[in-house]
Design brief:
This protein is mainly alpha-helical. The chain has a single domain, classed as ABC transporter involved in vitamin B12 uptake, BtuC. It has eleven helices and four strands, in the order E-E-H-H-H-H-E-E-H-H-H-H-H-H-H. Helix 2 packs across helix 8. It is globular and about 60 Å long.
């Protein structure tokens, strides 16, 4: 048996794969948070609840309408995106110009209400969602057996992250969004409807969370607590990458997933806290985060 630093190589590969999968969710969710904070200056604590709702919408589409997994990849983010737009227009926009702490408290309250309603309706144990037939089974790579669905999650998350980064950093729309965060009145003077842009940006961030929920639905039972279990770690990822940094969220999300996987191999007791230890070290050395800009 091949060993590396006293551990079987197959165990290392397995944990690295799991770390990469976790990193895909960290990157996807932290990306949505970074988009909302970077462009709206809102600390969106409801992001985990929107992630959970994306999974429940996926389950509901199949259970009540017979709509399968592949259409749900589009429909569930659209549904949650509309919900996000309603939240922004009716609640969050009233806090424009105030300290971000108010937005955090408001979205935290929204998350508690959403999770409470779903827990009351479905209970805490959750409901199952089967892996789509096209992605069932596994592939033998020689050094390990890789489930097809887990490979799909990593690929889908990476492609979505790249697409969002390209839109924000390489298109005219992204340039307008960045300009609106710097000087909204000036951008509006050029005929751009900034309030509508702000609403659509929050909706896009909510849709990203829902897309992650669709990916997560077949991996675990769809339950009201699935977002709560992730959101604290995802906030740590955003802080490490730099609040509002799109590229920082993507790189840090995947990187910390891999670090977490390695920690499970060599020091399992520390795997639950290693991300927070990294956060403390990064904040001591670079308070703005790895890719953030100092105020």
């Amino acid at each position: 048996m091949v060993m590396i630093f006293g551990k079987p190589l197959i165990l290392l590969y397995g944990q690295l794969t799991l770390g990469l999968i976790n990193g895909a969710f960290y990157a996807l969710l932290s990306l949505g948070l970074a988009v909302i904070f970077g462009l709206l200056n809102v600390v969106n604590f409801a992001h985990g609840a929107l992630f959970m709702l994306g999974a429940f919408v996926t389950w509901g589409l199949l259970t009540y309408l017979g709509i399968g997994y592949w259409p749900s990849l589009v429909l569930a983010p659209l549904v949650i995106g509309v919900l996000g737009a309603v939240m922004q227009r009716t609640l969050i926009r009233r806090l424009a110009g105030l300290d971000p702490l108010y937005g955090l408290l408001l979205t935290f309250g929204c998350a508690l209400v959403i999770e409470g309603l779903m827990r009351n309706q479905f209970g805490s144990s959750g409901v199952p969602y089967a892996i789509p037939e096209a992605l069932s089974g596994a592939v033998n790579l020689g050094f390990m057996v890789l489930p097809r669905y887990r490979a799909w999650v990593v690929i889908a998350a990476a492609v979505m992250c790249l697409a969002v980064w390209l839109v924000i950093e390489r298109t005219r729309l992204g340039a307008l969004l960045r300009a609106a965060t710097e000087n909204a009145p000036l951008v509006q003077a050029f005929g751009v409807n900034v309030p509508r842009m702000v609403t659509l940006t929050y909706a896009a961030g909510a849709a990203l969370a829902a897309f992650g929920g669709v990916l997560a639905a077949p991996m675990n039972s769809v339950n009201p607590n699935m977002g709560t279990n992730l959101i604290i770690v995802v906030f740590a990822v955003v802080v490490i990458g730099g609040m509002g940094s799109i590229l920082g969220s993507i790189i840090t999300g995947f990187g910390l997933g891999i670090i977490e996987g390695l920690t499970k191999v060599y020091y399992p007791e520390g795997s639950a806290t290693v991300i927070f230890v990294v956060m403390v070290i990064v904040l001591l050395l670079r308070p703005a985060g790895l890719f953030g800009k100092a105020a």
